[in-house]
Structure formats: structure tokens, C-alpha cells
Write a structure and sequence with these properties.
This protein is α/β, with parallel strands linked by helices. The protein contains ten helices and ten strands. Helix 4 packs across helix 10. The mean pLDDT is 95.
Length: 336
């Protein structure tokens, strides 16, 4: 069975064809990074317009790359939640039109479930149940995956996501957007104990995350140093990046450690754009080894937003009987 995935939740317009939820047949991603770099972050209205311009070509290229037509598809899968509402609506509208014109079933897919599914196309042996940690620019979630379409939320961010905090820290250091890769490299050069940044917790919710305090802590530290006449030289920047990254890693590791203790023996799955960070990957791998469980993380090209993950998760949603009518709408926020 061949499934078309369409992803447009933020600043990548993507389409892919996946066979039986596990095999990548084609994958196309049109990035908007160069556009948004001018503003230091994603501008929702500009993102929506860019999706409108790209979606037809991206989908055509994905079908051509798979050497099929839309008539050969089993179903059309599309991200409809959560994300930037205008961006989501572009993909949803296109998918509904394609489903109507071809008579193919329409399958709505949750973006975070999609990120987890990036591991299904990478590791054929991976099957639920497992513990999933999804870290991206807009989401930080700790989940118990009971089945391919059944999840229990253990913890979520109460304010800023880890990825957003990384972007703000990168900006204060004058790093180019997006700052994730530059922060990763810089952190490897610094002393992670040079600066003591806050590790925030949520009272009464041991699995929930909070990164707004850490983000503010970093910004204030850099601004105070500048006001005192300190030069933000290479050592200052690398130490700040290393110390900040260590604070994020500690915050994430503490909660994942608790989850592994609560659900002994379950594999650990890492996903999302920030899963590309080498320090986080290493820390989660070490934690999985400590608990003697398997660890899964997709290759870097499948960590960021892509349509392979949407087509893969769409396959499992389809198997479960999930279908959408042509009144399907987009949702800016939604539980997993």
C-alpha cells in the first residue's frame, strides 16, 4: 500500500510516498530557512504564502519520484494539528482537494505522532510499547506509546519548548538562524560548568517541562555581561552555549529517568528537530544504557519536519480506521 504524506505545519513544505508505513519510496522537502533567516525566526504569514507557492510542485515531485500517479495511492495523509494555523491550512486544503479529485481516503495526522513515526521507517523492528521523547522548536513532550495510535502524555512543556529556548540563546550570541547546529558545535568547545543556569521544575508535575526561566536566565546573563563592558568573545560564547545546553540536557534527562524507572524495560525513542542535537542524543543514549533498554533515534534528515513521518504515521492511522471528511479543519494546538 502506498501512502502520500503532506506536511506544512511550520516552515517546510514537504511531500513523501511511503510503502506500508516502513519503506520510503520518495521524499521532497522545500525549506523556507533562507526566507525566515532575514527576520531571525519564522514569520507565520510569510510561511503560509510560501507553502501556497510550493505545495503543488512538491507533491508533484514526490509522486514523480515514486514513479506513480495520485491514482496509485492507497490514501492521502496530511498534518492537520498542531502547528501554525495558516501553514496547516495550506496543506490541509491541498490534501482535501486531492482526495476529492481522486476519490482517495483522507487521513489526518498529528504532527508529534509523525515525529515519532520517523523511527518506524528507520527501524523495522521498532514496535510499541515504548517511551517517546519528542523535542522540537514548538514542542517538548514525554509520552508513553502504548500502540501505534494510542498514547499517554506523561509530561509536556508548560511554556517554551526546548527548541525555542535554543533559538533564543543562539540569537543572543549572534549566531545565524536557525541556531541549533551552531549552538551544538559551540557547546562542544565550551565548559558546561562555567555558568550555573537554572533547572526549572513544575510543582506537582514531575514529568512536565519548563524552559522559559532558563531562556530568560541566558538572555539576562549575556545582557548583564555586555552592560558591564565584557566582550562576548569566543570563550564567553562557547562557555555560555555549553552551560545552556547542559541545563537543557539535565532538565530532559531527569524526567526521562523517572519515566524509565516507572516503566522498566521499555525502549526509549527520541524524535523531533532538536533530537538532532548531539549532546541530547548522547545523554539519552547513556540513560537508555543505564536502564538496560534499547534506544532509537532517526537519522538527522528525518529529525526535522518532513512528510515521510506523516505518511508513515498515516499508514498506522489508516489501519486503525481513521478517516476524515472534506470538512477536515486545521488545529493550532491539540493533545497527542
Amino acid at each position: 500500500m502506498l501512502f502520500l504524506g503532506i506536511e506544512s505545519s511550520c516552515d517546510e513544505t514537504a511531500a513523501a510516498v511511503v510503502e506500508d508505513g516502513r519503506k520510503i519510496v520518495s521524499s521532497v522537502v522545500a525549506s523556507q530557512v533562507d526566507i525566515h533567516a532575514l527576520y531571525g525566526g519564522v514569520v507565520p504569514e510569510i510561511a503560509s504564502r510560501a507553502h501556497c507557492e510550493a505545495v503543488c510542485t512538491v507533491v508533484k515531485n514526490a509522486l514523480d519520484g515514486a514513479n506513480i500517479t495520485a491514482g496509485d495511492l492507497t490514501a492521502i495523509c496530511v498534518t492537520n494539528r498542531p502547528g501554525l494555523i495558516g501553514a496547516l491550512l495550506t496543506g490541509v486544503s491541498y490534501a482535501k482537494g486531492l482526495a476529492y479529485s481522486t476519490g482517495k481516503p483522507l487521513v489526518p495526522v498529528h504532527h508529534i505522532r509523525g515525529h515519532i513515526a520517523a523511527n518506524y521507517v528507520t527501524f523495522e523492528q521498532l514496535k510499541p510499547p515504548f517511551i517517546a521523547l519528542v523535542i522540537s522548536g514548538g514542542h517538548t513532550s514525554l509520552l508513553l506509546c502504548k500502540d501505534y495510535t494510542e498514547y499517554e502524555t506523561l509530561g509536556v512543556t508548560r511554556d517554551d519548548a526546548a527548541g525555542e529556548a535554543f533559538d533564543k540563546a543562539a540569537r543572543v550570541l549572534g549566531l545565524p538562524y536557525p541556531g541549533g547546529a551552531a549552538m551544538d558545535k559551540l557547546a562542544s568547545l565550551g565548559d558546561k560548568k562555567a555558568i550555573k543556569f537554572s533547572r526549572c521544575s513544575v510543582e506537582g508535575s514531575e514529568y512536565d517541562f519548563s524552559f522559559s526561566g532558563l531562556k530568560t536566565n541566558v538572555i539576562n546573563y549575556a545582557h548583564t555581561a555586555q552592560q558591564k563592558g565584557a566582550e562576548l568573545d569566543d570563550k564567553f560564547k562557547s562557555d555560555l552555549a555549553a552551560s545552556f545546553t547542559a541545563a537543557v540536557v539535565d532538565t530532559i534527562s531527569k524526567r526521562l529517568d523517572l519515566a524509565c524507572e516507572r516503566y522498566p524495560g521499555l525502549p526509549v525513542v527520541l524524535a523531533g528537530g532538536v533530537a538532532a542535537n548531539s549532546h541530547i542524543r548522547a545523554a539519552v543514549a547513556d540513560l537508555a544504557a543505564k536502564h538496560g533498554v534499547e534506544f532509537f533515534v532517526p537519522p538527522l534528515k528525518l529529525c526535522g519536519d518532513n512528510a515521510v513521518m506523516i505518511a508513515s504515521q498515516g499508514y498506522f492511522e489508516y489501519q486503525k480506521g481513521v478517516r476524515a471528511d472534506l470538512d477536515l479543519n486545521a488545529q493550532a494546538s491539540a493533545n497527542v
